[in-house]
DNA sequence: CACGGAGCCTGCCCGC
DNA sequence: TGCGGGCAGGCTCCGT
């Protein structure tokens, strides 16, 4: 489910329920997901107050005085805020129980495919950016460092297809499979183009399009925040209509040519041969 | 260093 | 109705 916009919308949704609130309990219902949960999390967090929330790429950060809880939703994960005493379902793996003004609330992580992760980074281990999972990540696509010039500079040695280079995450983070196809469409760039054969001007355009596509998705997600915090909430689902993603064979919204679907690095790519050169 | 493929998991949808 | 194959919004690891 989550690409960067979904993670950011999740952060915006859970932040008011977490920030400034003390943790009453941590519930771990399995050993771990992609990696083992830190078994000492309950003792580490009980009684501690959440200072703030953050995000790095698709990693959600829950910051405490003594360290940071790092949450990744993988392919199929989502978070909800629930009233206390809602029984856990089959794929509910992790709860953070916090004390709110109206009583306790439960931040619950659900992840059927279990590609997600919950990790702890103690401040004493040094800068969060140096954490194994976060080091080597590219720049934030919505931050000031992300420019066409950066894309151009960082792709001089990259002969792989631009779609795969963008998705690799070492130049820019958070551009997942959906929004990568959408951004390349908006920029008019064929996803198969070798990254080192794209001009600075076209990279300027691409950087702008990536920013726009992600920012618009966050705004759209934000408008559905009302539904986000609910027992049945399908958080992070946007009823937005894509230009190319998941539209194989359907007429391009711009030129009417059928949208094409190909495989790049085992992932589906959607594009318009007419609009993207 | 950079590239491509395998693998991690469950659920769902399709065709037989 | 059951079964197998393919697919799914991410990421790491490994061989070349």
Automatic annotation (TrEMBL):
Catalytic activity: Hydrolysis of DNA containing ring-opened 7-methylguanine residues, releasing 2,6-diamino-4-hydroxy-5-(N-methyl)formamidopyrimidine; 2'-deoxyribonucleotide-(2'-deoxyribose 5'-phosphate)-2'-deoxyribonucleotide-DNA = a 3'-end 2'-deoxyribonucleotide-(2,3-dehydro-2,3-deoxyribose 5'-phosphate)-DNA + a 5'-end 5'-phospho-2'-deoxyribonucleoside-DNA + H(+)
Any one Gene Ontology molecular-function term assigned to this protein's record: class I DNA-(apurinic or apyrimidinic site) endonuclease activity
Keyword DNA-binding: yes
Keyword tags: DNA damage, DNA repair, DNA-binding, Glycosidase, Hydrolase, Lyase, Metal-binding, Multifunctional enzyme, Zinc, Zinc-finger
EC number in record: 3.2.2.23, 4.2.99.18
UniProt cross-references to CDD domains, sorted A to Z: EcFpg-like_N (cd08966)
InterPro entries with a match to the protein in the record: DNA_glyclase_Znf_dom_DNA_BS, FPG_cat, FPG_Glyclase, FPG_N, H2TH_FPG, Ribosomal_uS13-like_H2TH, Znf_DNA_glyclase/AP_lyase, Znf_FPG/IleRS
Binding site for DNA: 91, 113, 158
Domain spans labelled Formamidopyrimidine-DNA glycosylase catalytic: 2-116
Cofactor note: Binds 1 zinc ion per subunit.
Role summary: Involved in base excision repair of DNA damaged by oxidation or by mutagenic agents. Acts as DNA glycosylase that recognizes and removes damaged bases. Has a preference for oxidized purines, such as 7,8-dihydro-8-oxoguanine (8-oxoG). Has AP (apurinic/apyrimidinic) lyase activity and introduces nicks in the DNA strand. Cleaves the DNA backbone by beta-delta elimination to generate a single-strand break at the site of the removed base with both 3'- and 5'-phosphates.
Family: Belongs to the FPG family.
PANTHER family per UniProt: FORMAMIDOPYRIMIDINE-DNA GLYCOSYLASE
Protein name per its UniProtKB record: Formamidopyrimidine-DNA glycosylase
Lineage, uppermost ranks: Bacteria, Pseudomonadati, Pseudomonadota, Betaproteobacteria, Burkholderiales
Gene name in the database record: mutM
């Amino acid at each position: 489910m989550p690409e960067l916009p979904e993670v950011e919308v999740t952060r915006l949704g859970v932040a008011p329920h977490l920030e400034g609130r003390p943790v009453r309990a941590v519930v771990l219902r399995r050993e771990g997901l992609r990696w083992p949960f830190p078994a000492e999390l309950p003792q580490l967090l009980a009684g501690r107050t959440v200072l703030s929330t953050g995000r790095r790429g698709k990693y959600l950060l829950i910051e405490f005085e003594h360290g940071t809880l790092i949450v990744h939703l993988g392919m199929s994960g989502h978070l909800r805020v629930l009233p206390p005493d809602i029984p856990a379902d089959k794929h509910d793996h992790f709860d953070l129980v916090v004390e709110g003004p109206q009583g306790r609330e439960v931040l619950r992580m659900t992840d059927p495919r279990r590609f997600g992760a919950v990790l702890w980074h103690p401040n004493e281990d040094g800068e969060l950016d140096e954490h194994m999972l976060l080091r080597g990540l590219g720049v934030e696509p919505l931050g000031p460092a992300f420019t066409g010039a950066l894309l151009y500079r960082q792709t001089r040695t990259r002969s792989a297809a631009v779609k795969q280079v963008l998705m690799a995450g070492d130049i820019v983070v958070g551009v997942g499979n959906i929004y990568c196809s959408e951004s390349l469409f908006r920029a008019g760039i064929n996803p198969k183009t070798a990254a080192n054969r794209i001009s600075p001007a076209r990279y300027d355009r691409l950087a702008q399009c990536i920013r726009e596509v992600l920012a618009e998705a966050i705004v759209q997600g934000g408008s559905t925040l009302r539904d986000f915090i609910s027992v049945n909430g399908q958080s992070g689902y946007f009823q937005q209509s894509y230009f190319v993603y998941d539209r194989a064979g359907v007429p391009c919204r711009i030129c009417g040519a059928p949208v094409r679907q190909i495989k790049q690095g085992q992932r589906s790519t959607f594009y318009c041969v007419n609009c993207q050169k």
